[in-house]
Amino acid sequence: MEIWINPRCSKCRSAVADLDAAGVEYTVRRYLEEPPTPAELADVLSRLNLEPWDITRLDEAAAGELGMRQWPREEADRGRWIAALAEQPILIQRPIITADDGHAVVARTPEAVRSVLPE
Q: Which Gene3D superfamilies match (predicted)?
């Protein structure tokens, strides 16, 4: 299991605390320091069953500078969105947990964190 975090984010700190309380083994990835590649993002999006615009933090200044709110949200534009997330990882919603069973969640709630815990 891996969790992508920004240590300054309270939701990320909460998710890490929940994982610690559950006693599971996991790897922390500080995705701002070690940005995911476009291929890694495509894999995580597939595991999340989401599109790149679904995990984009559109209120970030970088999104505004790029005009992302006006970008088309069509299959043909996925690559553009993924490239932007890889180049500016601050735009990626957090935390994201990739579970050992293959799925992933945007773990912004305790319920989402629990959904990736082994039974």
A: Glutaredoxin
**3 alpha-carbon distance from chain centroid:** 9
pTM for this predicted structure: 0.93
pLDDT tens-digit map of 35-91: 999 999 999 999 999 999 999 999 999 999 999 999 999 999 999 999 999 999 999
In a domain, 22, yes or no: yes
Cα distance between residue 31 and residue 42, in whole Å: 15
Q: Where are the beta strands (DSSP E) in 14-87?
A: 27-30
Q: Are 38 and 83 in contact (CB under 8 A)?
A: yes
Selection from 51, 52, 85 nearest residue 66 by Cα: 85
Number of domains in the chain: 1
Residue 119 in any domain: the answer is no
